[in-house]
Write a structure and sequence with these properties.
Four Helix Bundle (Hemerythrin (Met), subunit A); two-stranded antiparallel sheet; mainly alpha; globular
Length: 159
């Protein structure tokens, strides 16, 4: 993949995350308490993974013991922090040289298992992981008769 492709993937992720938080924020009162709990867990999981891999990319330790927060944040807190982290990823990718995407990063999964991924693989994982779970959130919204946010690359390109 090229620098431009990684940059675009991160831009799509940031746009799709903003759209999901917007739709959830406008419709949270239309979800049951159980649905709200599920939705917050989905959003928290996406965000926790984004933050964990942010730390891996920076070579910094993190405090996560699992791919979720120990205490469930509010939707407002999650939305603000997700915007911040998505902005960080956008700036981070912009600052990389083409060769940086091939650089291996050693880290430890929250399970304790050692791992090695290239920077580009981490970025691809973050983008694809978010897409998968935004789909989970969208399915929950659809089950409740709500329209999820647009989420695909083609939707992004139309904007």
């Amino acid at each position: 993949m090229t620098h431009a492709a990684y940059t675009q993937l991160i831009q799509v992720k940031r746009w799709a995350d903003l759209g999901l938080y917007d739709v959830v924020g406008k419709n949270l009162d239309r979800l049951t308490s159980e649905d709200t709990s599920i939705m917050l867990r989905i959003l928290d999981h996406i965000h926790a993974v984004d933050r964990i891999f942010q730390h891996h990319l920076c070579g910094l330790p993190h405090t996560f013991k699992a791919a979720r927060s120990e205490t469930m944040p509010t939707l407002e807190t999650l939305a603000a922090s997700a915007r911040e982290v998505d902005d960080w990823y956008a700036a981070y990718v912009t600052g990389l040289a083409e060769s940086d995407f091939e650089e291996p990063i050693d880290f430890v999964f929250t399970s304790g298992k050692p791992a090695r991924m290239k920077r580009g693989e981490i970025l691809l994982h973050v983008c694809m992981h978010g897409t998968y779970h935004r789909g989970n959130a969208g399915a929950l919204l659809q089950l409740r008769g709500l329209t999820p946010s647009r989420d695909s690359v083609t939707d992004f390109l139309e904007q």
